[in-house]
Amino acid sequence: xxxxxxxxxxxxxxxxxxxxIGEVPVGAVLVLDGKIIARSGNRTRLANDVTAHAEIAVIRxxxxxxxxxRLLGADLYVTLEPCTMCAAxxxxxxxxxxxxxxxxxxxxxxxxxxxxxxxxxxHHAPEVYSGLGETAAASLLTTFFRSKRQDD
Amino acid sequence: xxxxxxxxxxxxxxxxxxxxIGEVPVGAVLVLDGKIIARSGNRTRLANDVTAHAEIAVIRxxxxxxxxxRLLGADLYVTLEPCTMCAAxxxxxxxxxxxxxxxxxxxxxxxxxxxxxxxxxxHHAPEVYSGLGETAAASLLTTFFRSKRQDD
Lengths: 152, 152
Known about the structure:
tRNA-specific adenosine deaminase (chains A, B), zinc (chains A, B), hydrolase (chains A, B), homodimer, Cytidine Deaminase, domain 2, alpha/beta, 5 helices, metal-binding (chains A, B)
């Protein structure tokens, strides 16, 4: 559990950095054989890429560095419940375990929304662990959106 | 309708090229103001990227060339019903109209599977037109997978 907590802390650090540069504060790390092999926050604005959520950024980065499409045995830590797009990407990449922080009733697709991993059109589902680092993850998002509203 | 047919023909050409280079034969083009602004087939194998479906490839390419995240007013032509990941990306990119060829009961997410555009967690849905170029699109896929099985 100490390891899981430190990996989620690394994901939270990525979320904090994302907020600092004006991105929605969600962060992720990908772990293989006990080591972080990719880390990123959201980069949709900086990259002009709606698909550059933290989860997809780390999957792409890890696939590039390993030279393989599928990330068998890899575990993904992300501060917010993955959306529909990311849940499907996690399935395609054959991620072994998914740890997420805060639930996302409006956009999540794991324990909310389309609950993709439980659908017949989902051909690989990771083991899912939720609530790790939840308070810190949710607090980052609340603070970010409150400050955005004050800017408007 | 002549225009829609020629845009789907261009998507089919991308699917054919994808098959030639060993990728699953799905192709897409993105059209803005009556002109094709991005075209691609699947590139998951070549790019070592599970997210490099034809739809996501053209969305990313168009966003890069236009320097903007959202593709308001753009229409997407794709030879196969988008999967769960791509349906959500299409929604995020604010695509205006989606034209797709063949249905995909096993992996589709528009008229099959999670039917994402009809869900409460989908915050933008394109107009959807299906069946355009369906026979040619399905035939490319059938031929490709038959030849793969013979290789095994």
